Amino acid sequence: MKNDTTHPAFIIGLVSYFLLIMGVVLKGNVIHWSYDVILAAFVFGAVHWVWAIIDVFTNEDLKGTPSRPLWILVVIILAPLGGMLYYAMKRKRISF
Fold first, then answer.
1. Buried b / exposed e across 73-94, counting CB within 10 Å, b at 16+?
2. How far is residue 29's CA from residue 27's CA, in Å, rounded to a whole number?
3. How many independent structural domains does the chain possess?
């Protein structure tokens, strides 16, 4: 089985963290458009967070398992890091 780190939501989460770090560094160097980069990071992070919440609720593999409420809490409380953890630990179904 393979981890789901190529999922678009996982990649959006990585982009949001990269933009946040870049915006903070630019702000520290007094670059005036650093706020735009930080705002973009929050927008990407919000999209990733909502996508991960919807994915946890609609994932058929988690239906009826005790791990679904745990993943819902992790994704909601640790936003957007929780979503990245969910996609990194989620397993892809392999169909032949």
1. ebbeeebbbbbbbbbeebeeee
2. 5
3. 1
